[in-house]
Design goal:
The structure holds two protein chains of two kinds. Chain A is an all-alpha fold. Chain A contains 13 helices and no strands. Chain B folds into three domains: 1-77 and 230-285 and 527-560, 3-Layer(aba) Sandwich (D-Maltodextrin-Binding Protein, domain 2); 79-225, Dipeptide-binding Protein, Domain 1 (Dipeptide-binding Protein, domain 1, Alpha-Beta Complex); 310-522, Roll (Dipeptide-binding Protein, domain 3). Helices cover 32% and strands 18% of the residues of chain B. The relative contact order of chain B is 0.13.
C-alpha cells in the first residue's frame, strides 16, 4: 500500500508540470493584460508595472522563474490585490472553502447513504421510489437554482436563517452547505443503493441470514462495508467537484472562500493568482484521489488481495 | 483525519440511528439560528453603518487604487484640503480651514488647520501634502490618476520625466500650515480635485516603514499598519469579508462625527446584495438589480433611491474605417436611435436619454445639440452617403463587454437600424479585458463605452476627444477642437466665456459625431430609512462624517 502511494505521488509530478505549463501558456496568451483598464493607462505606467512584475522579460525566463517559485511553494504577489501574496490570499480563503466542502460532504453522505440504504432494503416499494425520486430531483437541480430558492424560503419568507455570510451569524453555514451537498447527496444515494443491492444478493449475506442474524446486524455490519465501496470510489472526484461547485455557492451566499478569488482572478488577468490557484487545486485533487483509492483499498479485501498478488509476481 | 474517521464510524451505525443523529444535528443547528437580531437593527443602536461596497478593495493606497468601491472606503479614512458639500457639491473646508486665490486664478494659498492630526496623533503639516503629491507623481507607483495633478504648474512635465526637479512643480509649503499651489492656467475646477483620493495626503513615516516611498504593493495600508487623516480609521480588513472603520479620535472634527463606524462589505453579486438588504444585513446597497427596480417602486418606494449620475453611456465609431469615415453615415446612425424608447422600455431605471456627451448641468453647462431622433433625415443622409435604403452597407459589429444590460441596449439599436435604415449589424460581445484590448487597439467598428466624471466640469467629458487623447479611440481628430480645449478654454477670462467655448467645441464634436450618445447614467441604491443626513448628488459621493443612524427606526424587523 505504501509502495502504491509512493508510485502515485511520483506520477503526480509530470501531471503537475503539465498543468503548470498549459495554464502558464494559456494565461499569457489570453488577450488583455492584468493592467489594462477602462481609462487609458499611460505607457510609462505600463512600463513601470511590467518591470516590477518581470513581465518585460522573455516568456521563457518568466516560466523558469515561476517553476522555481512553485518548487518553493511561493506563488508570488497578486497583481490585482496590491501588497497581498497569492499564498496569503489562498490561506485566507482555504479554511472557509474546506469547511464548506467538508460540511457539504457530510450532509451529502448522511442524506445520501441513509436514503440509498433505505431504498435498497425494500427495492421497488414506495420506500425505494420516494428517496430515489428525491435523488433524481437533487441531481437535476443546479445549485444556482437551489441556493436562491432555499434563501427565498428559509432566509426571506420564514426568516429562520441568514441569507449570506459564513460564520458571521449563527446558522449561516447551513444553507450553503446544504445547497452544495444536495447534488452529491443525490449521487451518493443512487450509488449506495446500487452497491447495497449487489451486496445484499451475495452468498455471504444469505449465510448471515441463514445463521439467524438480525436484519440490522446484517445491514450494518456485513452489507454496508461492501455496499459503500462505489461511494468511496466516488469521494475523490466528488471532493474535486465540490471545490468546483463551491465557486457558485460562494458567489450566491457571499462566502469569502477561494472560489470567488479564482473566478475574479481570471477576469482580472491576475496571472500569478490564476496560476497559483490552479496549481493548488491540481495538487489538492491529486491528493484526494489518492486518499479515496487508499480508503477503497482498506474497505475491499478483494482489491487488497489482488494488489498483494500483483506485487509478489 | 479525526473527522474522517468519525464519518466512517457514522456509517457503520445502523442506518436508522445514523439518520436520527443527522436529523438531530440538522435540527439543533436550525433552532440555534432562529431569531438573531439583524445587523441593521443592532447597527442603528450602536451607530454602525453597514454598507454594500461591490467588491474586495484592490488596495487602499490612494495613489494606486482606481475603483469606485475603494474610493468610498478612502473617503472615510482620509481627507483632502477641501471637501465637497454633499448636497450642492460646493467646496467646503477640509484640512484647510480657508484659502485665497490670486486675482489671475493661478495661485492658491491654503491655510491648514493647526489641529489637523493623523490617526496616530502626529501633526498634519503642509509638508505632508508636498511629499504626498511628490509620491503621487512617481511613475514607479503607477498612479492612473496622475492626470488629476496636471493643472498644477509643471506637474505634467515632471511626471513625464521632462523635468527632474520636483521643486519646479507648483506646490510649496510656505510654513507648517500654509501650502501654496501654483497652476498652469486658471482652473475653475481645481478646488474640486482636492477631494479626489489621489490628492489626499498620505503618512510618510508609515509608508517608509513598510517600503520605499514609490514602491507598489507594500503593506502600509493593511490592518494595524495604516495611518490616515480622515474621520475614521481602519479597524479591521478581513479579506473578502469586510473592511471596518471606526471613529478616529485624533480627527480635527471628531466631536461632530456621528457614526461610530462603517462596515464595508464586498457585495459582488448584486442579487445577493439585494437579499442581504431585505433580510436586514445592509443599510445601503451599491446597486439595485434592474429586474427588482419595478417591484421596489411599487412596494417599497421609500427605500429605492434613483438619482442622476455624472456619467455618459455612448458608442464609439471607428472613424478609421472607410464606411465610418463619412460623417453623414455616423450622423444617420445616431439619428435613427430612439433614445426615449431605450430609456423607457429597455433600461427602466430613470436613465436620461442623451443627445450630447456631457451630461446636462455640469457646472452650469448645458450642451447644445442638434441631434434628435429623426428617421426621415437619417435615411436621407445615408442615401447621400451612397447607401440608399441601406443598400451596400458593409456588415458591421456592435462590440460590447459581456453584460445583460449592454446586450439589451445593443439589441434595441440593432433593431432600430434595421427598421429605420434597413441596415444589418451584428452583436459581438467580449469578456471585459478582451473588450478593453479591442477598444484601445482600434479593433472594432462600433464599440459600447462609458465615461464617469472625475469632477464636475465639461472639460472632463470633452478633453478625451483630443487628437492624441488616450481615451479618444475613435480616430477622430480635429485641430480646431484641440485648440479650443487646450488653448482657449483654459485661458477664458470668465465663466460665461469658458462655457461658450465648451459649447462651441461640443457642437463641433456632435456635428462630426465620432461618438453616438445614448443615455446619462443613474445611480441606484436601496437606502434604509434609518440613514439620515445623506443627500444624493451627481457624483454619488457620500460624506460619512455627516451621516447618522436613527435608532428609533426599526421597521425592517422581520425582513419583509
Amino acid at each position: 500500500m505504501f509502495r502504491l502511494a509512493l508510485g502515485r505521488l511520483l506520477q503526480a509530478i509530470p501531471v503537475l508540470l503539465a498543468v503548470i505549463t498549459v495554464t502558464f501558456l494559456l494565461v499569457h496568451s489570453a488577450p488583455g493584460g492584468p493592467f489594462s483598464a477602462d481609462k487609458a493607462v499611460p505607457p510609462e505606467v505600463i512600463k513601470a508595472l511590467e518591470a516590477q512584475y518581470q513581465l518585460d522579460q522573455p516568456l521563457w525566463n518568466q516560466y523558469i522563474d515561476y517553476l522555481g517559485d512553485v518548487l518553493r511553494w511561493d506563488f508570488g504577489p497578486s497583481y490585482k490585490y496590491s501588497g497581498r501574496s497569492v499564498n496569503e490570499l489562498i490561506a485566507a480563503g482555504l479554511p472557509i472553502t474546506a469547511e464548506l466542502g467538508l460540511y457539504a460532504m457530510l450532509i451529502a453522505l448522511v442524506i445520501g447513504v441513509s436514503a440509498g440504504v433505505i431504498a435498497s432494503l425494500r427495492p421497488n416499494s414506495p420506500l425505494d421510489y420516494l428517496p430515489m425520486s428525491g435523488a433524481m430531483i437533487g441531481i437535476c437541480m443546479p445549485s444556482f437554482l437551489l441556493g436562491p430558492l432555499l434563501v427565498l424560503i428559509f432566509g426571506i419568507y420564514l426568516d429562520w436563517l441568514p441569507v449570506s455570510g459564513w460564520g458571521d451569524n449563527p446558522g449561516d453555514k447551513l444553507l450553503p452547505s446544504f445547497t452544495l451537498g444536495a447534488a452529491y447527496a443525490a449521487y451518493i444515494a443512487r450509488l449506495s443503493r446500487g452497491g447495497m443491492l449487489e451486496v445484499l444478493s451475495q452468498d455471504y449475506i444469505r449465510t448471515a441470514r441463514a445463521k439467524g442474524l438480525s436484519e440490522w446486524r446484517i445491514v450494518g455490519k456485513h452489507a454496508l462495508r461492501g455496499g459503500l465501496i462505489p461511494v468511496v470510489a466516488f469521494l475523490g472526484p466528488a471532493f474535486a467537484g465540490l471545490l468546483g461547485g463551491s465557486f457558485v455557492v460562494e458567489t450566491i451566499f457571499q462566502i469569502p472562500g477561494l472560489g470567488r478569488f479564482y473566478v475574479q482572478a481570471a477576469f482580472n488577468r491576475d496571472y500569478t493568482m490564476i496560476l497559483g490557484m490552479t496549481v493548488f487545486f491540481a495538487t489538492l485533487i491529486i491528493v484526494f484521489n489518492l486518499l479515496s483509492d487508499m480508503l477503497a483499498l482498506w474497505l475491499d479485501p478483494k482489491l487488497r488481495h489482488e494488489l498483494a498478488r500483483g506485487n509478489n509476481e | 483525519m479525526q473527522r474522517t474517521e468519525s464519518l466512517v464510524a457514522l456509517h457503520c451505525l445502523p442506518p436508522k440511528i445514523a439518520v436520527r443523529i443527522c436529523l438531530g444535528i440538522l435540527l439543533t443547528s436550525l433552532i440555534a439560528c432562529v431569531d438573531g437580531e439583524n445587523r441593521v437593527n443592532t447597527g442603528n443602536r450602536d451607530g454602525i453603518l453597514h454598507w454594500g461596497n461591490a467588491s474586495e478593495p484592490q488596495t487602499l493606497d490612494p495613489h494606486i487604487a482606481t475603483g469606485v468601491p475603494e474610493s468610498k472606503i478612502m473617503l472615510a479614512l482620509m481627507e483632502g484640503l477641501v471637501l465637497k458639500d454633499t448636497k450642492t457639491l460646493e467646496p467646503i473646508p477640509g484640512v484647510a480651514h480657508s484659502w485665497d486665490v490670486s486675482e489671475d486664478g493661478r495661485v492658491y494659498t491654503f491655510y491648514l488647520r493647526e489641529n489637523a492630526r493623523w490617526s496616530n496623533g502626529d501633526k498634519l503639516t503642509a509638508e505632508d501634502f508636498v511629499w504626498s503629491w511628490w509620491r503621487a507623481l512617481q511613475p514607479a507607483i503607477g498612479n492612473l490618476y496622475a492626470y488629476m495633478f496636471f493643472p498644477i504648474k509643471n506637474a505634467k512635465a515632471y511626471y513625464e520625466g521632462e523635468l527632474k526637479d520636483f521643486k519646479q512643480v507648483g506646490v510649496h509649503a510656505l510654513d507648517n500650515y500654509t501650502l501654496k499651489v501654483t497652476l498652469e492656467n486658471p482652473t475653475p475646477y481645481f478646488l474640486q480635485l482636492l477631494d479626489h483620493a489621489s490628492l489626499f495626503p498620505v503618512h510618510r513615516g508609515t509608508i517608509e516603514k513598510f517600503g520605499d516611498a514609490d514602491e507598489r504593493g507594500t503593506r502600509w495600508t493593511f490592518e494595524g499598519n495604516m495611518v490616515g487623516n480622515g474621520a475614521f480609521q481602519l479597524n479591521e480588513w478581513r479579506i473578502n469579508r469586510h473592511v471596518s472603520v471606526s471613529r478616529n479620535p485624533h480627527y480635527w472634527d471628531a466631536k461632530n462625527v456621528k457614526l461610530n463606524g462603517v462596515v464595508f462589505y464586498p457585495t459582488e453579486n448584486i442579487t445577493t446584495e439585494e437579499r442581504m438588504y431585505r433580510s436586514g444585513q445592509l443599510h445601503y446597497t451599491f446597486e439595485v438589480p434592474v429586474d427588482k427596480v419595478q417591484s421596489y417602486r411599487e412596494r417599497n418606494a421609500e427605500d429605492l433611491q434613483i438619482y442622476p449620475y455624472l456619467g455618459s453611456y455612448f458608442y464609439r465609431f471607428n472613424t478609421r474605417l472607410p464606411h465610418f469615415s463619412d460623417k453623414r453615415v455616423r450622423r444617420a446612425l445616431a439619428m435613427a436611435v430612439d433614445r426615449e424608447k431605450i430609456s423607457e422600455h429597455v433600461l427602466k431605471a430613470g436613465q436620461v436619454p442623451s443627445y450630447a456627451i456631457t451630461p446636462p448641468d455640469t457646472m452650469g453647462y448645458f450642451p447644445e445639440s442638434d441631434l434628435r431622433f429623426d428617421p426621415e433625415q437619417a435615411r436621407k443622409l445615408l442615401a447621400e452617403a451612397g447607401y440608399p435604403d441601406g443598400a451596400g452597407f458593409p456588415p458591421s459589429d456592435i462590440l460590447y463587454n459581456t453584460s445583460e444590460e449592454h446586450r439589451k441596449v445593443a439589441v434595441a439599436i440593432q433593431q432600430m437600424w434595421k427598421q429605420y435604415l434597413n441596415i444589418d449589424v451584428n452583436l459581438l460581445n467580449q469578456e471585459w479585458k478582451v473588450y478593453l484590448d479591442s477598444a484601445s487597439n482600434g479593433d472594432f467598428e462600433i464599440a459600447r463605452a462609458s465615461w464617469i466624471g472625475d469632477y464636475v466640469d465639461p472639460n472632463n467629458f470633452l478633453d478625451m476627444w483630443l487628437c492624441n487623447g488616450g481615451n479618444n479611440r475613435t480616430g477622430w481628430c480635429n485641430e480646431e477642437y484641440d485648440r479650443l480645449i487646450l488653448e482657449e478654454a483654459p485661458t477664458a477670462s470668465n465663466h460665461a466665456e469658458r462655457i461658450a467655448i465648451f459649447t462651441r467645441a461640443e457642437k463641433m464634436l456632435l456635428a462630426d459625431m465620432p461618438v453616438l450618445p445614448i443615455y446619462i447614467y443613474t445611480s441606484k441604491h436601496l437606502i434604509h430609512p434609518a440613514i439620515k443626513n445623506f443627500p444624493q448628488n451627481i457624483l454619488n459621493q457620500p460624506s460619512f462624517k455627516d451621516i447618522y443612524l436613527d435608532p428609533g427606526d426599526q421597521q425592517m424587523e422581520g425582513g419583509h
